[in-house]
Automatic annotation (TrEMBL):
GO terms for biological process: proteolysis. Residues 22-83 form the Adaptor protein ClpS core domain. GO terms for molecular function: peptidase activity. SUPFAM superfamilies: ClpS-like. Keywords: Hydrolase, Protease. This is ATP-dependent Clp protease adaptor ClpS. Pfam families: ClpS (PF02617).
Length: 91
């Protein structure tokens, strides 16, 4: 085994594996588009355009990933969505 191969293998082992979680928002027949958009702007720090696009995707597709990141960041955001009456979960 050459020195170059050995160094390459060691470098690969040192890389940190990052796991990304997602908040998935689900469609319902209760909340208005305006409420969903306002809540996404507040809880997920979306722009108005991002929030509107997510609301449309949820409406037509049934669900949409609205935020990705580390679990500790997503947990309070998901709680805000749930407290606002939206259906969401972290996956």
């Amino acid at each position: 085994m050459s020195t170059r191969e050995k160094t390459s293998i060691e470098t690969l082992l040192e890389e940190e594996v990052l796991t990304q979680n997602e908040i998935v928002l689900f469609n319902d027949d209760v909340n208005t588009f305006d409420h969903v958009i306002d809540t996404l702007i507040y809880a997920c720090e979306h722009t108005a355009e991002q929030a509107e696009q997510c609301a449309l995707l949820v409406h037509y597709k049934g669900k949409c990933t609205v935020k990705t990141g580390e679990y500790d960041d997503l947990k309070p955001r998901c709680t805000m969505l749930l407290n606002a009456g939206l259906s969401a979960e972290i996956v």
